[in-house]
Design brief:
single chain, 159 residues, alpha+beta, Aminopeptidase, seven-stranded mixed sheet, 7 strands, globular
């Protein structure tokens, strides 16, 4: 069965789903220090903006953003985007990214993120949303030692 993005609801991430986030982290990022349930809880405790993508009430993706400062000097950082492998390639990640960028735009924030240099699908998605590569972080992901690109999207006026 192939769900459409219109069937997926993007809502504020529920604390009840943090265990599921940690489970997905193990699947998605198992070789690179995946986040624990307590790491997600800490992000929420700090007031960062976290969303969940839900299909029939089940969490199939998540995304988080931190915003620092105030316009015109605000900066945002995408902390994470993850989508259950069974639901990848169907627009869930793009939907989550767009929701994070809407939040960044509300703050007129320049947005940054790190992405593995070998993650071509993610890099393409970020480029499609106005990001450009501005730096390289050698051996950023541990323990694998994979390099990361730093990408930036200039602030956009919210419409």
């Amino acid at each position: 069965m192939s769900e459409s993005v219109t069937e997926v609801k993007v809502l504020k991430l529920r604390r009840a789903d943090l265990r599921r986030c940690a489970q997905l982290e193990q699947v998605l990022f198992g070789g690179d220090d995946p986040w624990s349930k307590s790491a997600f809880s800490s992000e929420l405790d700090q007031g960062h903006y976290y969303l969940g993508a839900y299909l029939d009430e089940r969490l199939i993706g998540y995304a988080g953003l931190a915003v620092n400062g105030r316009p015109p000097h605000a900066e945002a950082e995408v902390h994470t985007i993850g989508v259950d492998p069974a639901h990848q390639g169907r627009g869930v990640g793009k939907t989550l990214l767009r929701a994070l960028l809407t939040r960044a735009d509300e703050h007129r924030a320049t947005t940054f993120l790190e992405v593995r240099t070998d993650n071509e699908p993610a890099i393409a998605m970020y480029r499609d949303h106005g990001f450009e590569i501005v730096g390289l972080r050698p051996r950023y992901y541990q323990p694998s030692g994979a390099d990361a690109h730093t990408m930036r999207r200039e602030a956009v006026e919210a419409s």
